[in-house]
Write a structure and sequence with these properties.
The structure holds 3 protein chains of 3 kinds. Chain B is α+β, with helices and mostly antiparallel strands. Chain B is built from 8 helices and 7 strands; from the N terminus they run ααααααααβββββββ. Chain B has 3 domains: 103 residues, Tetratricopeptide repeat domain (Serine Threonine Protein Phosphatase 5, Tetratricopeptide repeat, Alpha Horseshoe), CATH 1.25.40.10; 66 residues; 59 residues, SH3 Domains (SH3 type barrels), CATH 2.30.30.40. In chain B, strand 5 and strand 6 form a beta hairpin. Chain C starts with a helix and ends in a 28-residue tail after the last helix. Classes of the chains: A alpha+beta, B alpha+beta, C mainly alpha.
Amino acid sequence: MLAFALAVGRAQLSTRIPPGAAAQFMVPQPAVDNSPPENILATAEFDPPVVRPGEKTFYRVTITATENSIKWPDKIPAPPELRLGAVARGQLTQPDGMPFHPVSGFVYEITALALGHFVVSNFVVQVGGSSVEVPPASVDVDGHGVTLPARKLSLEVSETNLFFGQPFRVRVILPAAPGNQIEALRDVQFNGDALLADRLATRRSVETVNRGGQLMPAFIFETAATPLVTGRLNISAQGFTAGSEFGGPVVISGPVMFPSGPPKYVLLVSDWVGLNVRPLPSEGQRPGFTGAIGKFLADRPQLSTNRIHVGEPVHLKFAFHGQGDLTRFVPPELPRTSDWQVIADNPPDNGFTLIPLTDEIQATPAIPFSCFDPSAAKYVDLTIPSLPVTVVGEDLPLQLAASDDEAGSAAPLKLSGLALMPGKTVASLKPLQLRGWFVGVQLVPVMVFFALWQWDRRRRFLEAHPEIVRRRQARRALRYERRQLKIAVEAGDSAAFVSHAADAMRIAVAPQYPANPVALVGGDVLAQFDDAARHGPAGVTVRKIFAAADEQFSIGAKGRADLLALHFEVDAVLLELEEKL
Amino acid sequence: MRWHRQILLVAVLFGAVICRAGTANDYFKVGLEMSGAGQLPEAAMAFEKSAQMQPASGTLVNLGIAEWRRGRAGAAILAWEKARWIDPFDSRAGADLKFARTAAQVDEPELKWFETASTWLPPNAWAWLAGASLWLAVGLLVLPGIFRRRKAGWHSPLAALAFGIFLFTLTANVGVVSRTQIGFVLKKNAPLLLTPTRTGEVISTLTAGEPARQLRSRGNFLFIRTQTESGWIGRDAFGLVGD
Amino acid sequence: MKPFTTIIKRALPLLLAASWRALAVDATNVVPPVTARDFYNAGTRLLAGKKYDDAEKLFQSAVAAQDEPVQPAAVYNLGHARFAEGAELIKKGPDAQKVSARGHAASAAGEQAIRRSESALADNNLDRMIAAYLEGRGARRELRDAEKAVAAAMEIYGKTLQKWQRAADDFKSAAELNPADTNATQNAEIVERDLAQLVDSLRKMQAMLGAMGKQRADLGKLLGRLKGQIPGPNAPPGAPGEDGEEDDNGKNGKHPEDLVGQKENASLQGKEESPSALSPDQAGQILEGLSIDGGRRLSMSDQEGRPLQPGKGRNW
């Protein structure tokens, strides 16, 4: 099988099926000749009629009736030395004015297993309810004779390893007959599971091909096909030879000869070709994949203008080209966006008309698109990028005509001029009433007033209870005297000790009377003790201190150092007196 | 040494305020230049940045003018309303609003009586006035007794006056808070939806600059009430004055 | 006396309100709905009773009441009501298969008439021209009638399209209001698929209409030429004005620009998609796919007093 390459780098704008091309399918077919059975002819032959053992030959039966009306038997009376392959069948509508005459062909690929002369005898087939006899045909299997090769078609495919949905090119080749006579092929069809042939991508040509090292002209029927299942796929081709009835335009290269006379319609078949169809990978699929398979490149999109008003349409044109079938190229889908109204161009044009719906737009929407590159086995992003645009809002008037001023002179007729200074500023447009800290600030005077009120209350209370003040003052003065006592003891100053001790005792008992401490004497201090304490150590200590204090006032008095030893007793007395405060 | 630290802190804060003001002023100047050059989108962006950094009545007036000149009536009306919010005595904003509403055929928002009263002074002034009047009244009544001063003849009348001012400012403050829910439609033909969803049924379309009150919100939608109907609108299509 | 007067003053308004409500009860003892929940419950009852128009109005009122707990379920059922309304329109509308077949038959007759006319003009045979003229006139009448039938079908489909578009948006809204409601999302997808099929059908009908219109125009021109060739005495009888161009603008229910942005079924890659007029079989298959068969029932929120709980509804 010859593999062939497509024209590399053929720049081809994406083409869509033009309406005219599709119109040919709308033409209704003329009526088919349904002649009575006596006009139905059946012929049978072996091609070639002479073969060597092990070589192939084709057993062909041609019947001038529609294929559907023929009930072909499951088995034909072939001798066991001839191994039969599967039957290929086809129908040709033979143009012969109006109406059309059908010709149906049945072909078996036969392998001769033994030498000899073998006959496939006549047999009857049912055609439209009537019996038609197929005449006998014979083949000679000769080990020595010169044999001619069987006429058959060649099937070539551009790819045998495909992905699901990947279009590929198929060429059906009918080499020239002896004498370099070219015959057309008609009603070419492909046999195989789930294969879709694209009739609109068909090309007929007569070219020179290399067959077994020999260059010869051949009729080539070329089309595009797409596998519709995954897995192992076997395809073959068949077609009717049709003389010079090409049935459409044909490109002829080089000198050729066409057979003269009426065409002989013979059903030819090709060998089976295997294809391996893999599913498209699901991982890595990019957004905007519409089924394009091939190596494509995107041209830079073009915008008709980049400055538009709201509601004004702008055209976005895009184009793709590259290796791959663009006949069935499905362009990107309409992008869904709330800012734009998008209208797709009618085929074969490629583009979108975009209408901006708001003036906040700054760019056209990116249009997701991707293709699958079978050679790299991965998806390629071909997203049409967004292009910057400036959308101008509606034209608002900058001044009003005098008649527009409905309220007389209430409304100004034009806008004011620009302010040259920022003017009054605020920290934020959010009012203070909604800010937490302002509410918090209002609590400050509350707290202040509360504090003042508490202070006034305290003051009044103390005014009503002066003894509390006196006692507090006495405690404070007592603490001071005790500190002085401690200093006097540490300094060994007995005079100061006695003086401060006496003062401390007077201060401690002054609030009880109440009286000025200076006016109190030892007896006043003793009066604060009960009888037992008065005559006990506390009383003795008090008398000693006050006696010593009185002596200090006399002239020539000397300090008594032994009184310093009384500081513990003096502390005890002062503690007892303080507890009474 | 403690007072040294306090002075330093105040100086740093003041410097930050001055720096911030300096940048806002720069954007203001850029906006003026762009407006003069006819680069309206850029001018609007500059004024908007300046207003975001330091809201000012003049900046917002200029923003409104730039938006109006580039065809965005809703955004212009909102900017002028914000300028009037900051400074009710700014006659330019008021005049531009009257002009715009006449040209765009949209109505003023309907204000209740206490909201109308709240427009006589800037919103923050009412807040300070309320606080000052209240505490003045309380102080006049309470402090003489606390400090054992004889109440003068003017204490009580002044306290009564202050309290009266406070009561009035209460209604004005309520009006200020209520007015923060007033907004304006920003987009032309903004859809008013029945439900707060992207695919909600469209009740009607609103004109840019049309006033409405926000009643509540849900997700990216606000429930608003115009003078004739109510429904949901996208957040990007509606702007509040006090925002 | 004074307490008695006070009691009367306070009780009277309540008594009046209760009596108004009692008077408002209709013969079926149903109190007219007041709250969102009332509207929703009433709408659900009507939806179950297949009164889709009234149910739609009640659900709309329930949604408009902006009651947050009720709104998602009300929007969901509103989608149901609208979808059912659209399906009813298709059911009650003209039989799409018949309309399609009629269109194709008229188209075939028109094609034949055009060929006969062209052949007669080429042969310059008077008898054949008269026969072709008569045939052409009949075929043109047939085309006109078929166009009207297709236009009527398209109008119905257009109304259904609007209902289903709204229904799909309602389901999407319900899903957005209550993300836990997977039923709403599924229903939206189903309605969108049906919408895509409907749009396909509409486009095909539109193409058929356009083709028939063109055919009628071509036939009209040929008839004009034939008439010019036929001498006066041999002219066949006919109603006056019948030969004139009938320029009916065909008030289709849907205009091409209305279909802009509608998502068609994406064509399978490599599959041949012929833009030609539909064969009756093809049209029948497509339109058959839109009919609601008995095996697929729409789930409805039929629990009174409580909005549909998300996730507990039956799958569509």
